[in-house]
Amino acid sequence: MNIIDSTFYHLVLKEINYSLGDLYMLQDVAVLQVNKGQHITKDSIEDILMELYMFYELKQQNFALISNNINVYTIDYSDCYKYTNLFSNLHFYGIVDYSNLNETKQFQQNNFGNTKSKTFKSLNEAFNYIRPKVLI
């Protein structure tokens, strides 16, 4: 499900469309939807990471990031460790995976260190599970 079709889209405070994908920022949850066929590297996601930093980290706002995988794309796994140390206020990372849950779980275990992470089957499930954990 695209976030635009969700019951919580009205809570979006800021929406930015990049060539890589779309970023939706709520008070305490950010949702990233990468466009079909894109390849994520530290360089290609730099603008999105900077926006997250400006929106949450500078305000010292705890937040969660949900990767809503509605499209097929690739990730440079050698860069992943670089993402995880950028945000001290990132309290949860969720992946909504509509296809290959085993690969996604392996990715989470290997790349998100101390940040809690979980795989979900739907965007609503992810949002309802994660949001109360960030508000604590």
For this entry, give a set of tags:
136 residues, Transcription Regulator spoIIAA, six-stranded mixed β-sheet, 4 helices, 29% strand
Describe it.
The protein has 136 residues and is of the alpha/beta class. The chain has 4 helices and 8 strands. Strands 1-2-3-5-7-8 form a 6-stranded mixed sheet, sandwiched between helices. It is globular. 28% of the residues are buried. The mean pLDDT is 83.
Quote the distance from N terminus to C terminus.
27 Å
* Major β-sheet profile: 6 strands, mixed
The fourth-level CATH homologous superfamily is STAS domain
Provide the CATH topology.
Answer: Transcription Regulator spoIIAA
Number of domains: 1
Q: Secondary-structure blueprint of this entry?
A:
Blueprint: E1 14-17, E2 21-25, E3 29-34, E4 39-40, H1 46-57, E5 63-69, E6 74-75, H2 80-84, E7 90-97, H3 101-111, E8 116-120, H4 123-135
Parallel strand pairs: 3-5, 4-6, 5-7, 7-8
Antiparallel strand pairs: 1-2, 2-3
